[in-house]
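Records of this kind hold a single protein each, on a pair of labelled lines. With that in mind, the following record should read easily:
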Amino acid sequence: MTLNVAAIQPPAGTSQDRQAILAAAGVIIKGGKIPMEPFICEGGRVTIGDAEIGPWNTIGRFSYINSGFIRKAVEIGRYCSIGRGVTIGTGTHDIDALSTSPVLAPAANIVKYADPERRKSVVIGHDVWIGDQAIILTGVTVGTGAVIAAGAIVTKDVAPYSIVGGVPARPIARQVRFSEEVCGRLLDSRWWELPLQALRSSPFGSPVDFLKWLDKNGEGLRRDPFMSRRKHI
């Protein structure tokens, strides 16, 4: 029997086509759900498990989400680790009106933006670790280097390199990952802009040693600012 190759090719516009386009941009889909259009990335590896991704979401390279839901207009930086069953961005309902139903709401429903100028509903920095079943409400900014404990409900902004947990989420344990000086120097270093191979060859196991290494070697390293090669997919 002669195999008709054309017969097994997916029609234009199918999820297979969409997944192929995403794969070409470095987005790895491990679950059965395809991010809604437009999906914004900068090129480079991004891994999405069984997660529902709404439109106008941005995910930086080397970040991954295992499963959950990202609502709309969320920006996630580089090197973020997002666990299972995580919700980022929540709906808005008017509890002071006759009904909380959106059917009666005006067409231009008020949305609380974390970044009103760029109309981002949630902004998550770089190197953020979000534990399983965490929920981050619309209008929240999570700073670079922060850790969100499993099951936390984040209702307010989270400072860079802080550790929060609980309902509602508050600082826990050491409260911050490193000393104030080290946190400030890491933020100033913008290490997430450096080439991956350079980071792998650095003493990344110790922030203090890394900063010393960067002082000696950083000047000659090429930098790639976040979203410098933005693409709508």
User: Anything to note?
Assistant: Residues 1-12 have pLDDT under 50 and may be disordered. The helical segments are 5-8, 15-24, 180-189, 196-201, 207-217.
